[in-house]
Design goal:
about 140 residues; alpha+beta; 2 domains; two-stranded antiparallel ribbon; about 20% helix
Length: about 140
């Protein structure tokens, strides 16, 4: 296979190394994200001082395209939700302080916490910033 053959295949979206159509992740702008076949390649690229955009980023395997992308550490940190904080508190782990009971999500019933984002709707109701489920208020009777 010539260099021109490889260039043609890549332009068609086919990886000449494995002979399959590549499906790379794209940014919200539609441009293709930088990708790497191995963690080592990604980490070496992120460690290159001449690389100002990705310097110090972390390599992560993408579940969508099965290739490695570089991401800022803060992008990979999970966001704590009010329900997460409530669970942590229930099992004895320190969590952000609860707000007054009037700051309760109308969907799931969780009281909001300091430092965790929530939304105030136009009518004044409060909802979690993360997707939550409506609290079930029905009582299930037990069959004896």
């Amino acid at each position: 296979m010539t260099t021109e053959d490889m260039k043609f295949l890549r332009e068609c979206g086919i990886d000449p190394g494995v002979g399959r159509i590549e499906n790379h992740c794209k940014r919200s702008t539609g441009t293709e994200r930088a990708y790497f076949r191995t963690r080592e390649d990604a980490e070496a690229f992120a460690a290159d001082p001449g690389n100002v955009h990705y310097l110090g980023d972390l390599a992560r395997l993408c579940a969508r395209c099965d290739l490695y992308h570089l991401s800022k550490a803060e992008w990979l940190e999970p966001r704590l939700t009010a329900r997460d904080a409530q669970f942590l508190e229930e099992i004895g782990i320190a969590a952000p302080q609860r707000m007054r009971d009037s700051f309760r999500c109308i969907m799931c019933g969780t009281v909001q916490r300091d430092g965790i984002e929530f939304l105030i709707l136009a009518n004044g109701d409060i909802v979690c910033n993360q997707a939550c489920v409506r609290e079930s208020r029905c009582q299930h009777s037990q069959v004896s």
